Amino acid sequence: MATFAIILSEPTPDDWEKLKQFPASSYYIVDDRLAFFSGKDVDITAEISDIVGMNDEEKVTGIVISVEWYDGWHNNTLWEWLARQEKKNSV
Model-level pTM? Predict the structure, then answer.
């Protein structure tokens, strides 16, 4: 299992609805252009890109990046979510 950052050039047309189809514990939406995703079944960037519409059909533009280390300043909820995912990844 890995954690990924999904960074969009513009907000998604569906307001992250496709991401919200997964269990709530598997994603963290920061804002309309940035979300994090972690899951056992989807652990390649191409699959995540397709989920949010980065494909020929929907043409959402952005990038999906695997997150292994992180630092910065943000609300506690984000840090707690990242810590839970890190703990799951180490099991």
Answer: 0.84
